[in-house]
Amino acid sequence: MSVLELVPQSLRPGAPRAGRAGRGLLAGSALAWVALLLLWLPLGVSGADPHAHHAVPGPSGGAPALDAWSPAWAGGWMLMVAAMMWPLLVPTVDRVARSAYPSWRVGLAATAVAASTALWLALGLAAASVAQVASVPAGSVWWQLAFVLVAAGAWRSARRTRLLWRCVKLPPVAPGGLRGVRDAAGAGVVAWRRCAALCGPLMIAMVVGHDPVVLVAASLSVWWEARHPRAWRDPVPLLLIGVAALGAVGGEFMTP
Protein backbone atom coordinates (compact mmCIF):
# COMPACT_ATOMS: atom_id res chain seq x y z
CA MET A 1 0.00 0.00 0.00
CA SER A 2 1.36 3.40 -0.96
CA VAL A 3 1.41 6.44 1.29
CA LEU A 4 -1.09 8.14 -1.02
CA GLU A 5 -3.61 5.33 -0.49
CA LEU A 6 -3.59 6.04 3.24
CA VAL A 7 -4.86 9.57 2.68
CA PRO A 8 -8.62 10.15 2.63
CA GLN A 9 -10.00 10.71 -0.86
CA SER A 10 -11.20 14.22 0.00
CA LEU A 11 -7.68 15.31 0.98
CA ARG A 12 -5.85 14.00 -2.06
CA PRO A 13 -4.77 16.31 -4.90
CA GLY A 14 -7.57 16.41 -7.45
CA ALA A 15 -10.06 15.13 -4.88
CA PRO A 16 -13.81 15.47 -5.49
CA ARG A 17 -15.71 18.38 -4.02
CA ALA A 18 -16.91 18.33 -0.44
CA GLY A 19 -20.37 16.90 0.25
CA ARG A 20 -23.29 18.93 1.52
CA ALA A 21 -22.19 18.65 5.15
CA GLY A 22 -18.64 19.62 4.24
CA ARG A 23 -19.83 22.59 2.20
CA GLY A 24 -21.87 23.78 5.16
CA LEU A 25 -18.77 23.57 7.34
CA LEU A 26 -16.72 25.51 4.80
CA ALA A 27 -19.43 28.18 4.71
CA GLY A 28 -19.23 28.48 8.50
CA SER A 29 -15.46 28.82 8.26
CA ALA A 30 -15.83 31.55 5.62
CA LEU A 31 -18.22 33.47 7.88
CA ALA A 32 -15.70 33.19 10.72
CA TRP A 33 -12.99 34.67 8.48
CA VAL A 34 -15.32 37.55 7.61
CA ALA A 35 -15.99 38.17 11.31
CA LEU A 36 -12.27 38.17 12.06
CA LEU A 37 -11.65 40.58 9.20
CA LEU A 38 -14.28 42.92 10.59
CA LEU A 39 -12.54 42.76 13.97
CA TRP A 40 -9.14 43.51 12.44
CA LEU A 41 -10.08 46.34 10.07
CA PRO A 42 -11.54 48.87 12.54
CA LEU A 43 -8.65 48.25 14.91
CA GLY A 44 -6.12 48.83 12.16
CA VAL A 45 -7.81 52.08 11.10
CA SER A 46 -8.10 53.47 14.60
CA GLY A 47 -4.62 52.40 15.68
CA ALA A 48 -5.98 50.45 18.64
CA ASP A 49 -4.25 47.42 20.10
CA PRO A 50 -5.32 44.37 18.03
CA HIS A 51 -5.33 42.23 21.18
CA ALA A 52 -7.41 44.54 23.36
CA HIS A 53 -10.70 42.72 22.79
CA HIS A 54 -9.57 39.86 25.06
CA ALA A 55 -7.35 41.79 27.50
CA VAL A 56 -7.67 43.89 30.61
CA PRO A 57 -5.53 46.95 31.43
CA GLY A 58 -2.13 46.01 32.77
CA PRO A 59 -0.74 47.19 36.09
CA SER A 60 0.48 50.78 36.20
CA GLY A 61 -0.52 51.36 32.60
CA GLY A 62 1.73 48.59 31.30
CA ALA A 63 1.00 46.03 28.62
CA PRO A 64 -2.59 44.73 28.71
CA ALA A 65 -2.97 41.50 30.66
CA LEU A 66 -4.57 38.42 29.16
CA ASP A 67 -8.07 37.64 30.47
CA ALA A 68 -8.47 33.98 29.55
CA TRP A 69 -11.93 33.49 31.07
CA SER A 70 -13.64 36.51 29.56
CA PRO A 71 -16.47 36.05 27.03
CA ALA A 72 -14.51 38.24 24.61
CA TRP A 73 -11.53 35.88 24.68
CA ALA A 74 -13.74 32.80 24.26
CA GLY A 75 -15.59 34.41 21.36
CA GLY A 76 -12.38 35.40 19.59
CA TRP A 77 -10.88 31.96 20.12
CA MET A 78 -13.96 30.18 18.79
CA LEU A 79 -13.94 32.38 15.69
CA MET A 80 -10.32 31.45 15.11
CA VAL A 81 -11.04 27.73 15.60
CA ALA A 82 -13.93 27.90 13.12
CA ALA A 83 -11.87 29.81 10.58
CA MET A 84 -8.74 27.69 10.79
CA MET A 85 -9.84 24.23 11.95
CA TRP A 86 -13.26 23.59 10.44
CA PRO A 87 -11.89 23.15 6.89
CA LEU A 88 -9.77 20.29 8.24
CA LEU A 89 -12.94 18.58 9.52
CA VAL A 90 -14.61 18.42 6.10
CA PRO A 91 -13.55 14.81 5.35
CA THR A 92 -14.78 13.72 8.78
CA VAL A 93 -18.21 15.34 8.62
CA ASP A 94 -18.74 14.10 5.06
CA ARG A 95 -17.86 10.58 6.15
CA VAL A 96 -20.23 10.80 9.13
CA ALA A 97 -23.03 12.25 7.01
CA ARG A 98 -22.66 9.52 4.38
CA SER A 99 -22.87 6.85 7.09
CA ALA A 100 -26.04 8.27 8.66
CA TYR A 101 -29.70 7.78 7.92
CA PRO A 102 -31.13 10.83 6.11
CA SER A 103 -32.95 12.03 9.22
CA TRP A 104 -29.73 11.78 11.27
CA ARG A 105 -27.23 13.33 8.87
CA VAL A 106 -27.31 16.87 10.18
CA GLY A 107 -27.37 15.81 13.83
CA LEU A 108 -24.47 13.36 13.59
CA ALA A 109 -22.35 15.69 11.47
CA ALA A 110 -22.98 18.49 13.98
CA THR A 111 -22.02 16.13 16.82
CA ALA A 112 -18.65 15.42 15.22
CA VAL A 113 -18.00 19.14 14.73
CA ALA A 114 -19.11 19.95 18.28
CA ALA A 115 -16.84 17.29 19.79
CA SER A 116 -13.78 18.54 17.93
CA THR A 117 -14.57 22.21 18.58
CA ALA A 118 -15.12 21.57 22.29
CA LEU A 119 -11.68 19.99 22.54
CA TRP A 120 -10.12 23.03 20.87
CA LEU A 121 -11.93 25.26 23.35
CA ALA A 122 -10.63 23.17 26.25
CA LEU A 123 -7.06 23.28 24.91
CA GLY A 124 -7.28 27.02 24.33
CA LEU A 125 -8.62 27.69 27.84
CA ALA A 126 -5.88 25.54 29.37
CA ALA A 127 -3.10 27.28 27.43
CA ALA A 128 -4.53 30.74 28.02
CA SER A 129 -4.90 30.04 31.73
CA VAL A 130 -1.24 29.08 31.92
CA ALA A 131 -0.35 32.29 30.09
CA GLN A 132 -2.51 34.33 32.46
CA VAL A 133 -1.00 32.73 35.58
CA ALA A 134 2.46 33.36 34.14
CA SER A 135 1.51 37.04 33.57
CA VAL A 136 2.05 36.79 29.83
CA PRO A 137 0.65 40.02 28.33
CA ALA A 138 -1.93 39.96 25.56
CA GLY A 139 -0.23 39.88 22.18
CA SER A 140 3.11 38.74 23.65
CA VAL A 141 5.53 38.39 20.73
CA TRP A 142 7.75 36.04 22.75
CA TRP A 143 4.89 33.63 23.50
CA GLN A 144 3.84 33.57 19.86
CA LEU A 145 7.38 33.22 18.56
CA ALA A 146 8.22 30.43 21.03
CA PHE A 147 5.32 28.22 19.95
CA VAL A 148 5.80 29.01 16.26
CA LEU A 149 9.39 27.77 16.66
CA VAL A 150 8.09 24.65 18.44
CA ALA A 151 5.87 24.03 15.40
CA ALA A 152 8.86 24.43 13.10
CA GLY A 153 10.93 22.05 15.19
CA ALA A 154 8.18 19.42 15.23
CA TRP A 155 7.57 19.65 11.48
CA ARG A 156 9.79 16.66 10.58
CA SER A 157 9.16 14.68 13.77
CA ALA A 158 8.75 10.94 13.06
CA ARG A 159 6.44 10.59 16.07
CA ARG A 160 4.22 13.36 14.77
CA THR A 161 4.09 11.71 11.35
CA ARG A 162 3.07 8.36 12.86
CA LEU A 163 0.29 10.07 14.82
CA LEU A 164 -0.98 11.77 11.66
CA TRP A 165 -1.25 8.44 9.84
CA ARG A 166 -2.88 6.66 12.80
CA CYS A 167 -5.55 9.36 12.90
CA VAL A 168 -6.30 9.17 9.17
CA LYS A 169 -8.61 6.20 9.55
CA LEU A 170 -11.87 7.00 11.27
CA PRO A 171 -13.80 4.44 13.34
CA PRO A 172 -17.09 3.05 11.94
CA VAL A 173 -20.09 5.30 12.55
CA ALA A 174 -23.55 3.89 13.25
CA PRO A 175 -26.28 5.45 11.06
CA GLY A 176 -28.36 6.83 13.92
CA GLY A 177 -29.52 6.55 17.52
CA LEU A 178 -27.43 6.94 20.65
CA ARG A 179 -24.73 4.71 19.20
CA GLY A 180 -24.53 6.97 16.16
CA VAL A 181 -24.17 10.02 18.41
CA ARG A 182 -21.40 8.28 20.35
CA ASP A 183 -19.62 7.17 17.17
CA ALA A 184 -19.92 10.62 15.59
CA ALA A 185 -18.43 12.21 18.71
CA GLY A 186 -15.62 9.64 18.59
CA ALA A 187 -14.95 10.52 14.95
CA GLY A 188 -14.73 14.16 15.96
CA VAL A 189 -12.20 13.28 18.66
CA VAL A 190 -10.06 11.28 16.21
CA ALA A 191 -10.16 14.17 13.73
CA TRP A 192 -9.19 16.59 16.51
CA ARG A 193 -6.17 14.48 17.43
CA ARG A 194 -4.92 14.69 13.86
CA CYS A 195 -5.58 18.43 13.71
CA ALA A 196 -3.80 18.90 17.05
CA ALA A 197 -0.77 17.02 15.69
CA LEU A 198 -0.83 19.21 12.60
CA CYS A 199 -1.15 22.58 14.27
CA GLY A 200 -1.38 22.34 18.07
CA PRO A 201 1.68 24.56 18.72
CA LEU A 202 0.50 27.12 16.14
CA MET A 203 -2.91 27.29 17.81
CA ILE A 204 -1.35 27.69 21.27
CA ALA A 205 0.80 30.50 19.87
CA MET A 206 -2.40 32.44 19.18
CA VAL A 207 -4.08 32.16 22.57
CA VAL A 208 -2.55 35.53 23.45
CA GLY A 209 -3.75 37.26 20.29
CA HIS A 210 -4.92 36.69 16.73
CA ASP A 211 -2.31 38.48 14.66
CA PRO A 212 -3.58 38.48 11.05
CA VAL A 213 -0.26 37.47 9.47
CA VAL A 214 0.32 34.68 11.99
CA LEU A 215 -3.22 33.35 11.63
CA VAL A 216 -3.24 33.40 7.82
CA ALA A 217 0.24 31.89 7.47
CA ALA A 218 -0.48 29.19 10.06
CA SER A 219 -3.79 28.34 8.38
CA LEU A 220 -2.18 28.02 4.95
CA SER A 221 0.57 25.84 6.40
CA VAL A 222 -1.76 23.30 8.01
CA TRP A 223 -4.20 23.30 5.06
CA TRP A 224 -1.32 22.59 2.69
CA GLU A 225 0.00 19.77 4.85
CA ALA A 226 -3.46 18.22 5.21
CA ARG A 227 -4.07 18.47 1.48
CA HIS A 228 -0.74 17.04 0.31
CA PRO A 229 0.15 13.54 1.51
CA ARG A 230 3.90 14.17 1.28
CA ALA A 231 3.85 17.73 2.61
CA TRP A 232 6.46 16.98 5.27
CA ARG A 233 8.93 16.35 2.43
CA ASP A 234 8.53 19.73 0.76
CA PRO A 235 9.43 23.16 2.13
CA VAL A 236 6.04 24.87 1.77
CA PRO A 237 4.65 24.27 5.32
CA LEU A 238 7.98 25.23 6.90
CA LEU A 239 8.22 28.38 4.77
CA LEU A 240 4.73 29.38 5.85
CA ILE A 241 5.63 28.75 9.49
CA GLY A 242 8.58 31.08 8.87
CA VAL A 243 6.15 33.72 7.59
CA ALA A 244 4.14 33.25 10.79
CA ALA A 245 7.30 33.83 12.85
CA LEU A 246 8.02 37.01 10.91
CA GLY A 247 4.43 38.09 11.43
CA ALA A 248 4.74 37.60 15.18
CA VAL A 249 7.89 39.70 15.30
CA GLY A 250 6.55 42.31 12.87
CA GLY A 251 3.34 42.67 14.86
CA GLU A 252 5.36 43.82 17.87
CA PHE A 253 6.76 46.76 15.93
CA MET A 254 3.46 47.65 14.25
CA THR A 255 1.49 47.81 17.50
CA PRO A 256 1.41 51.38 18.82
UniProtKB/TrEMBL annotation:
TM ranges: 21-41, 74-94, 106-129, 141-158, 236-255
Domain of life: Bacteria
InterPro entries referenced in this protein's UniProt entry, alphabetically: PpoB2-like
One Pfam entry name: PpoB2
Keywords of this entry: Membrane, Transmembrane, Transmembrane helix
Protein name: DUF2182 domain-containing protein
Native organism: Lysobacter korlensis
